[in-house]
Amino acid sequence: MMEVENRLSERFDGLVDELPDELNERRVKNGVILEESEEEAEAMEGGGVEGEEMLKSDGLHHNSGRIIKKAKRPIKATSFSEPSAPGVAPTQGLVNLNRASKNLRRPRNSLGRGLPKKGGAGGKGTWGKLGDEMELPWVDPNDPNYDSDGEEAAEVGKKTIKLNTLVPEMSEEDVRKAVEPLMLEYFENGECEEVLFSLEEMLLNIGSRRWMVPALAIELSMDHKPSHREMTSQLISELYQKVISQRDIGKAYDFLLRQLSDLILDTPDAPTIIGNFMARNIADDCIPPKFLQSYKGHVTEVEAVKALCRADTLLSMKHGLVRLDNVWGVGGGIRPVKYLVKKIVLLLKEYLCSCDIQEATRCLKDLEVPHFHHELVYEAVVMVIESMHEKTDEAMCKLLQALFRSFVITIEQMRAGFQRVYDQMVDISIDVPQAYSVLERWVLRCRQAGIINDDILKKMPSRGRKRFVSEGDGGLIKDSSYW
Predict the structure, then answer these.
(1) Tell me, what's the pLDDT at 73?
(2) SS3 for 483?
(3) Which of 41, 98, 271, 287 is the most exposed place for a label (fewest CB within 10 A)?
(4) d(Cα 9, Cα 14) in Å, to the nearest integer?
(5) 208 with 169: CB under 8 angstroms?
(6) Contact 482, 447 (CB under 8 A)
(7) pLDDT grade, residue 77 (50/70/90)?
(8) Rounded distance, CA 457 to CA 467, Å?
(9) 49 SS3 class
(10) Are strands 32-33 and 27-29 parallel, antiparallel or unpaired?
(11) What is the pTM of this model?
């Protein structure tokens, strides 16, 4: 046994003592081979001559001159497809890497931590992380769903180009053709909001000719009733600062003052009307009071001076701004009943003198009291009874027939007028003894003309007279000859 042990020691003692230098240098403490990291740390902490000599070595040759084959892990400091990081020299061990090492998904620079690139979401054939589709950093301009309106300039040097729609501007004739139907429709229905909405749609086309809107409204209202002029004043106040400005209203009045010589031909009281409009707009705060002062000394036409003086007079009178609310008069049923009755009686008297049915119809419409037309029927029947003249009967019958056929007076108003006469026959007969006979004759004429129906005819009263047929009739009363 001793011989065998001696042989083994002779065979292996030299081999153990002559370990590779790398491992031999690690036999520092208690004959235990230290790891690389522990060896480097001990060399850094030692600070002696041996540590300095180990740091000075180039890693390929030992101090004794023997070649060291140090095991190294190939670090991928150089990429096959990308340039290397600045300041990092390429590693010689990467020149002959195989394809499996080349296609590793770990970063190839020396600064990486060995983790997969892009958190595991990069590489060929990958779709990215979950949720990346919610926030796309870039949209393809060729995509059918691509919207360039919300896209902002990506770079500071670039500018976003916006294409504005080119809208052709209307001429004065086109503006007149577009605005006049709106105003005429407004006079019928009185809807300010509809006119405002329509003008806002064509505002781009009107352009710098917005002043024509108030000018055309005032010009058209001159040919209509005072109630339409009141509606025009309200419309201008409603359009102010929405469609038209203070400058547009001033330019409209300047245009109307220049055209007064032509407007007087159709409307003789045009200067008074324009003066009323100017005063009303000043009261509504559409134009400033100094607007009138700007014309002093600059107007030579007589009609324009008259219009400006009219506006100045209305504004300078006591409580002028409050009274200007009724500058066009009280319209329709707001007026007192006595005033309306007086107007209707005057209308009928003028008709009996002229027998002009059209003028009488126009005056009745100007009163704007369709609910009070039964008063005209009542006054007409009373005039016929009081006159007791054939000519008056015929003229009044023609007037009522024309008004009834033109639907100015309805059958309800006609029935109400006749019924009022029937109820007042007792008082009328005191002043006119023959009232019943005249009423009977005229009612039959109206029935033949088609003005009234049988219901109105049957309700006609008759004076009952106890006239005996003969002395021996036994007190019988003669039946009415009307039925």
Answers:
(1) 56
(2) coil
(3) 98
(4) 8
(5) yes
(6) no
(7) very low
(8) 24
(9) helix
(10) antiparallel
(11) 0.49
